[in-house]
Amino acid sequence: MDYDAIVVGAGLAGLVATTEIADSGKKVLLLDQEPEVSLRGQAWWSFGGLFLVDSPEQRRLGIKDSKELAWQDWLGAAGFDRQEDEDYWGRKWAEAYVDFAAGEKRAWLAVKGIKFFPVVGWAERGGYLAEGHGNSVPRFHIVWGTGPGIVEPFERRLRQHIENGLVKYRPRHQVDGLQSSGSSVTGVFGSVLAPSEAQRGEDSSREAIGEFTYQAKAVVVTSGGIGGNHELIRKNWPERLGTPPEKMLSGVPAHVDGRMLAITEKFGGRIVNRDRMWHYTEGIKNWNPVWSRHGIRILPGPSSIWLDAKGERFPAPNFPGFDTLGTLETIQKTGYSYSWFILTQKIIEKEFALSGSEQNPDLTGKSIRQVLARVRSGATAPVQAFMDKGEDFVIADTLEELVDGMNRLTGDTLLDAHHIRRQIKARDNQLTNKFGKDLQVTALRGARKYIGDKLIRVAKPHEILDLANGPLIAVRLNIVSRKTLGGLQTDLSARVLNNAGQPIPGLYAAGEVCGFGGGGVHGYRSLEGTFLGGCLFSGRVAGRAVAERGEE
Description:
The protein is of the alpha+beta class. The chain has 18 helices and 21 strands. Helix 1 (12-23) runs parallel beside helix 18. The radius of gyration is 23 Å and the shape is globular. It starts with a strand and ends with a helix.
């Protein structure tokens, strides 16, 4: 055999698996179809949020969390209903992951030098009953350094292993198939792609200039999901989420295309939960795009008024930041694939953040001075850039001018200023006293009882139509593709299973390609902060399983 293991895919899960195997003294070949500049995959672009349970950061903020509460929330979000088949291993992975998040995860990362921003975010707030979807408490821990800060220690360790001869890294090597002897995987074959000058995330060519074949005792597939393949997304789109969107933005580069899913399935690996996926509803077109149809997700606080394409306010609990897929379903059933936020200057200054390492230079660059600047008046520089240059923003002094601009932007002329004014005025009337029946107002008042939200995330409740809080701002929101929640079914040792439920000898998977473990660790919905964490955990499990694997 040429190597003890071959890892296919150089994203976060691939880096973790590779370094775990090499740490045991075994030789690893790391293959990726993209140029070396794209080493680290999607994780490099991420905001860097991780799901942790009962952390020191939570306790310092007065948050009382527990593994029991986290598991209750996970089950409420996941809604596992295929437990005798497609959800069998996903639920087991979920239990193991919550144990990890409540136990060893933070200490393991601390040893690698990973630290966290002190304010814990409250993502996916739910808005249902106690056993329904959503985080009961803030659990979104932002890595100091965002996505690059997460991948840096694993890349550093990878390069140490390259220097000591335990790892060989081959970019521009596109795997086209798996090799076998009997029922066991024995290697991979594929195409050597032409050198590319494409920068990180940019589309690179698929021109083949050669072929390769490599042998190994084990193959670990860590190639990601289907978020860049809109055709495949629409093919797998579930009826429960309405009609597939005709237009989508892409939250991931085009190379996130699902090729290795099809290749592994053809070899005999079982794919489960194809209909489960995670796409964001608050997407705006990047004014400075890196890849095709590049979309950026707004990370909103809870105060903006959310309207459908016809100007109807969404019903509870479809509020900003509460239930991603619940709102996606509601939007798609309107017959339009876009919606609107209406907000004020005071709200955008306090509540708008943009997902992505490049959209948060202060956190990514670990600049305390720049982070402290967030509390000053005015939107952050990246948000202001979108206000100035982004095609999805409309700014006006009066509601009538705002609605005219919204209608011009879409060309649909669906919005009536009088109708929108009535709805916003009704909401504003709820601020007359501390009582009221508008659940969004109740929610934002409740959010401000959490010191983290009050300081940097939730604006003081105010009347949107009061000119003193203006100007008024409207944002057209698009669907932006993101994560695959289903995938290759794996057991708790990350071994890929066949259609009979048996492990395929020598074949492993980690990361999004296996639904972050088991073929669907999240079930139907994510609690957020669990995608990067899923890559870390499943990559670690796969790497250690291969490292401990005896001769077969």
